[in-house]
Amino acid sequence: MARGSSGIVAGLTAAALAVVGFLAYQASANAPDSVAVPKPKVSSSAPAAGHDKPKEKKKSPPALPAGSGTGKRVVYALGDRQVWLVDEAGKVTRTFEVMPSALNPLPGKYLVGTRSGPAGKGSDGVTIEHVVRFAMVDGVSVGFSAAVDGSMESPDPSLKTGGVRMSRADGDAVWEFATVRTPVVVVP
Fold first, then answer.
1. Does the pLDDT of residue 16 top 60, yes or no?
2. What is the pLDDT of residue 72?
3. Residue 172: partners with Cβ closer than 8 Å, 6 or more residues away
4. Are strands 183-187 and 73-77 parallel, antiparallel or unpaired?
């Protein structure tokens, strides 16, 4: 009887695994876009049924602002929430979006004054890394930083915070590029 029971158990186990696999497949196929594995897009010249217009293409980053200086510099556009890293020859080596701080410096030219690399707490209590400070506003240091958890939340306007947040990869790039005394040009 023991031999017959092990065959039944093995058969039931195999059936249970098949059901679990099928249910997992169904769940992934019906998951919301926020958690589902991206599905390949189907190319079509006509809009799909139920859609008025095709999806907008991701727009390219704005051009480097005119009048933002010459030579090696970091350019920070407050209105566009965009940063450009510009080399000595005036070539943009990287550009990316940022989340502005609650306190913004006035447009003008600043210099990187201090930097701190290891993770620490920002003025908003978020753990940050690669802080590159370049201005003071109302007694608060303003600088670029990246949240260790990758977040780029809008700052609480009731707090006096000076962290201009970016992705960790962009934070690494700013850290490598913007050493002490590197110009930072803030434009409207």
1. no
2. 98
3. 130, 146
4. parallel
